Structure formats: C-alpha cells, structure tokens
Amino acid sequence: MRQAVAILGSTGSVGANTLDVLARHPDRFEVFALTASTRVDVMLAQCVSFRPQFAVMADAERAAELARCCREQGLPTQVLAGAQAIADVAADERVQIVMAAIVGAAGLEACMRAALAGKRLLLANKEALVVGGPVFMQAVRKGGARLLPIDSEHSAIFQSLPPDPA
Question: What is the fold, at CATH topology level, of the domain defined by 3-160?
Fold first, then answer.
C-alpha cells in the first residue's frame, strides 16, 4: 500500500528534491498535498506532474490564481489558502509522512499539528526545534510522531545524541 505524503514547502529546493525522490517510487508513495508560499508557476507545474488531492498557498490571492490555473488545466486538485489550511493538510488522517521544508518559523504550527497527529515527520527546518523547543518535542511524544531530521546540521546533532529513555 502506498504511503500518502504532504510536502510543506514543495516549491523550495528541499521540497523539489523530495518530489524527485517520490517520482522514482510511485509504487511506494503518493503525493497527497503540496504547500507553498508564493510561487504559483512552480506549484502549478507540480500539480500537473503529481496531481495531489490538495495544493495550499499561504497567500489567498495566489491561491485564487492557482485555483484558476488548475481549473484551466482540468486538474482535480483542490486549492486551499492560509496557514490553517497548511496545518490541516499536515495533520490529515490520510497522510502518513510529512516533509516539513517551510523556511523559517512559518511552518511551526503545521509541524506541531503533524507531530500531535502522530505523523512520520521529516524535519528540514531548524525553526521548529529552535523556536518550539521543549513544546515541540512534547507534541512529538504526545502524538507518538516519529521525528526524522533531514537538514545536515541537526541530523548530525540528532545522530550524536543518546536515545531518549522516556
């Protein structure tokens, strides 16, 4: 059975690289949701290629533009807008894996929701750990999420820490 993946920040380099990997394993993964801040042209191309159920733009005007473009292309993708919608797709019960690649603290709420929902959370931004710190880690434990650091710096730190006995 294929695992559903939500990519938060799909139009950036980490998101694009994640899509490249997923494209090589269509038997194992399906792209459920893509999110982005401003790059409608890149998001549209990703929607054409991967046909996610949801595409979320942080900005409502850009979401309206993307929705129009998706309709013109005949895509079934539902377009949503705003931080709440990004957090909602991250926590959706149909999603097993969340790639958190939103730059800065903007992705913190979505990361918290994914953690509380017990997702396998691939963390490519440090801000959830730096800004969220103990509260974020408590959400990971409470939700039973599996946290996998992707960025080289915090992956190296993660690998050097002893296992958590709790």
Answer: Rossmann fold (3.40.50)
Confidence (pTM): 0.89
CA 154 and chain centroid, separation: 18
| pLDDT per position as a tens digit, 70-123 | 999 999 999 999 999 999 999 999 999 999 998 777 788 999 999 999 999 999
pLDDT, one tens digit per residue, over 45-64 is: 999 999 999 999 999 999 99
Phi and psi at residue 114, in whole multiples of 5°? Answer: -65, -40
Alpha carbons 83 and 64: distance in angstroms, whole number: 15
DSSP letters spanning 19-82: HHHHHT-TTTEEEEEEEESS-HHHHHHHHHHH--SEEEESSHHHHHHHHHHHHHHT--PEEEES
Domain boundaries, the chain: 3-160
